[in-house]
Structure formats: C-alpha cells, structure tokens
Amino acid sequence: MILETTDLSVARGGVTVLAGLGFAVGAGQALVLRGPNGSGKTTLLRTLAGLQPPVAGRVMLSPDAVAYAAHADGLKSTLTVAENLAFWASIYGGPPPERAIAALDLAGLIRRRAGELSAGQKRRLGLARLLVTGRPLWLLDEPTVSLDVASVALFAAVVREHLRQGGAAVIATHVDLGLPEARILDLDPYRTRVLARDGFDEAFA
Ligand SMILES: Nc1ncnc2c1ncn2[C@@H]1O[C@H](COP(=O)(O)OP(=O)(O)OP(=O)(O)O)[C@@H](O)[C@H]1O
C-alpha cells in the first residue's frame, strides 16, 4: 500500500470533523473524496499530507511519497512557466519538465510569467508541477477548479497515466472527473464512519 489509515480522526479549528476513517490506497489506485462544503475533505487531505496532526488514529505513508496540490497554486508569479517547472524539478529531483509541459498543454505558455496567466492556465501549471515532483502519491484538493472541459479531460488523462505507472491519488472534488476506475469515499459530516479494510469494497460506492 502507498497510503493506509486506521481509525483516523481529523479536526479543524479544534472541532473533530471526521472520525473512524480506515482506508487504503495502493499503487495504481485513485480515491475520490466527495462531500458537501465543510464535510472535511480539505482537512482530511491536509492531515494525509502531514500539514496537521490527526486527532486520533494513524496515517501510514512515506513522507517522501507525497505531492500535495491545494487550493492555492503555489506558483512563483515572477518566474515564467518554464522557470517554475524547472525550479520544482530541481527541488524535488523529479523528471525534466518536457512531459509535464506537453501533458498539460503548456507549450504555448512557457515564456509567460506565472503571474500573468489566467486562472485556468495557472491551475494547469499547478497540476504540471505534480509531474515534475516524481512523487507517487498525489493529494489533490479541487484540482479542476477554473479548468475548462478540455482541460478537465487533460487532467483526467494525466491522472490515468500516473496510475498506470504505479502512482496513486486521493482527489477531493465536486465534479465528475471522468475517472470511472476511481473509488469514491463519501464523507458524511453528520456521522462518523468506520471503514474496515476487509469491507473496503462495500464501504465505497
Ligand atoms: N481555518 C479554519 N479554522 C477553523 N475551522 C475551519 C477552518 N477551515 C475550515 N474550517 C471548518 O472545518 C470544517 C471542515 O472544513 P474543510 O475545509 O475540511 O471542508 P471541505 O469538505 O474541504 O469543504 P469545501 O467543499 O467547502 O472545500 C468546516 O466546518 C469548516 O467550517
């Protein structure tokens, strides 16, 4: 398994928002987190990413495995698209940016400063960053916000290729990503859930 949680409880602002979560995500698997606003998707992703501690339970993963893409794109606005990707590739020691540029259709934008991109273009650059990290576990918070239909399809293809190469992804989203192979975890803010590993398939819709 690339990621496994047992009896995990997570909190935001001192309030426990999810409890008793047990799930596993292996190589080649994607898990989609669904739930209404405030149900705890971001809080769960932040906890998985190690940005905040769990209230209870365990998260088992290698910290070196994780690439986290949050609401904020984390772009360096004065650097160009090419410079941003080269910067991240050097930080993470991942592959050179050519594939990421092609996969997110950024070739026509490589000399533009990140600060001068449209919202959707910035989002595509933020997603291209995932590819140059070379990391196997992608934790993605609303990755398709600002993306047009064609870019959502590009993104889905990128995730599918990542899974095919043995990667994994946990994706919080309100939209249909066009990833029928992904399992769904519906987060219910009004009751806690206990998802036994043995009951994994039953627990996921
Ligand atoms: N900075 C914060 N301080 C205190 N409470 C917070 C903070 N951010 C979120 N919360 C609360 O924590 C709970 C879970 O929020 P979270 O952002 O994890 O939900 P979400 O499912 O990601 O929502 P959305 O779909 O709106 O992005 C909500 O009740 C929210 O009001």
TrEMBL record:
Key words, A-Z: ATP-binding, Cytochrome c-type biogenesis, Membrane, Nucleotide-binding, Translocase, Transport
Gene designation per UniProt: ccmA
InterPro entries: AAA+_ATPase, ABC_transporter-like_ATP-bd, ABC_transporter-like_CS, ABC_transptr_haem_export_CcmA, P-loop_NTPase
GO terms assigned for molecular function: ATP binding
Domain ABC transporter intervals: 3-196
Name the UniProt record assigns to this protein: Heme ABC exporter ATP-binding protein CcmA
Organism: Tabrizicola soli
Highest taxon above the source species: Bacteria
A Pfam family of this chain: ABC_tran
Family matches, as PROSITE patterns: ABC_TRANSPORTER_1, ABC_TRANSPORTER_2
